[in-house]
Amino acid sequence: MKEELEKNILKILKVYTKDYPQELKKGIFYAIAKGKRIRPLIFLSLLKNKRINISKKEVMKIALAIELIHNFSLVHDDLPAIDNDDYRRGRLTCHKVFGEGNAILIGDALFSLAFKILADVKIKDGLKIDILKILSKATTDLVVGEFLDINKKITTKKEYLEIAKRKTGALFRAVYEIAALLLGLPLKKRKEYAFYGENYGILFQIEDDIEDKFPLPFLLELKNSLTRQLANKLIINDDK
């Protein structure tokens, strides 16, 4: 599945960036290279072998938009003014290769491309608007979460969860929400998908912070608690 996704990412991006300045285009492809594609792969797996009223090509556009939003956040996150990281995915970060100003614009380009591609998705207008709303909200939450992260010293579980929910949980929530929408699920079920996606994203952030030895004593407790909650949610869903 990942190989097919990679081929489609490159194919679609080449079309949408054909008129871009060469250096900007180079930066865009550099920024998205070597990613794990966790979010779009989850999205595709949720739709795999399901009947939906949208072609595979259009599904790939949505998957790409999700990945572009994720990568825009990483490019900006790595900047000297925020995390000041020199390496990402085993190689130099965008601002180290292309310069700080260009890296900001590369991130901006990834963000704008995501919504340009979404606007071109061939799907019923009502569904398209719903998808745009979901991803707009997720992106807003992501930015707010990042803002809180760099401006607020985390000392409590509540503060940590508020930031993790926005910074990481929001885009995972969007992945599950959009999949549920395309599957034509009823509102109650879509809310369950959103709940699972958001909390899976929070768990993803917790595990990342534990691996990075983030100095908060309650992370392991939070991880275990959230893992149990998600397991119970899966059991509930399986029983229906």
TrEMBL record:
Keyword Protein transport: no
Pfam families linked to this entry: polyprenyl_synt
InterPro entries referenced in this protein's UniProt entry, alphabetically: Isoprenoid_synthase_dom_sf, Polyprenyl_synt, Polyprenyl_synt_CS
Cofactor(s) annotated in UniProt: Mg(2+)
Listed GO MF terms: metal ion binding; prenyltransferase activity
Keywords, sorted A to Z: Isoprene biosynthesis, Magnesium, Metal-binding, Transferase
Gene Ontology terms: biological process: isoprenoid biosynthetic process
Transmembrane domains' residue ranges: none
Family that this chain belongs to: Belongs to the FPP/GGPP synthase family.
Protein name: Polyprenyl synthetase family protein
